[in-house]
Design goal:
47% of the residues lie in helices and 12% in strands. By secondary structure, it is α/β, with parallel strands linked by helices. It folds into 2 domains: 123 residues, Rossmann fold (3-Layer(aba) Sandwich); 58 residues, Arc Repressor Mutant, subunit A. A 5-stranded parallel β-sheet has the order 2-1-3-4-5, with helices on both faces. Helix 3 links the parallel strand 3 and strand 4.
Length: 230
């Protein structure tokens, strides 16, 4: 009997759901996307996911996956590297540019060492050669889902920090940018052509609005913002 490696996976979607369609609102349960042009294998893997309570959606090509809706919660993509149209490896390379990269488990019947290395360098969390054991795939999916949970948590924290940054006035943003760069109040005052007292007042407001208590905390959250504060 196959073990469930995802613990709180939640119920699987209806077998009659259209591939790529959005089901019930996301409840935090993970979902597995399977992209493989081998229909029998894809359906077999879907059955495996259902047997351990994992939500799953199957696609016959990269384009089908791109055209379909995807959930916002934790996910894993099981991807065959040899597909019609855009190959799995090409898709992996494209995903490197995305803000959120859904963790990928690569599967192939044509695996070799160079391809394995290329897949891992492109961000795959694991590389399995067909035929593989069900538990090996489930273990890889579990690792991928946990990685995505952590990634989503980091993105949420970064979004919260950015939202706080946008509550700052232009003058406060200017002070924060320079504080994060390590400038002293006197240096900031000279560069902005304001008094040192003004810098101290703005700096205090920045600390409150950014919800930090120490300079080290301010530098840390500033480093989470892509762009101006760095």
């Amino acid at each position: 009997m196959t073990e469930d490696p995802t613990r709180n996976a939640g119920p699987a979607p209806s077998q009659n759901a259209k591939p790529g369609s959005r089901g019930a609102p996301h409840d935090g349960s993970p979902i597995v996307y399977i992209v493989d042009d081998d229909t029998s294998l894809r359906e077999s893997l879907e059955d495996l996911m259902n047997s351990v309570g994992l939500a799953v959606r199957g696609f016959g090509s990269v384009q089908e996956f791109l055209d379909g809706d995807t959930a916002d919660g934790p996910a894993c993509l099981v991807l065959d590297v040899r597909l019609p149209g855009q190959s799995g490896m090409d898709f992996l390379r494209r995903m490197e540019q995305a803000r959120r990269r859904v963790p990928v488990v690569v599967i192939t019947g044509h695996g070799d060492i160079p391809m394995s290395v290329a897949a891992m360098k492109s961000g795959a969390v694991d590389f399995l050669t067909k035929p593989f054991r069900d538990q090996d795939l489930l273990d890889a999916i579990h690792a991928a889902v946990e990685k995505d949970r952590a990634q989503l948590a980091d993105m949420t924290r970064a979004d919260d920090v950015l939202a706080r940054w946008h509550t700052l006035t232009e003058g406060e943003q200017a002070v924060m940018e320079r504080v994060v760069r390590g400038m002293l109040n006197k240096q900031i005052a000279a560069e902005l052509d304001v008094s040192e007292i003004t810098v101290k007042v703005r700096r205090g407001r920045v600390m409150r609005k950014m919800q930090v208590r120490t300079l080290a905390d301010l530098v840390r959250v500033g480093g989470q913002i892509k762009g101006p504060p760095r």
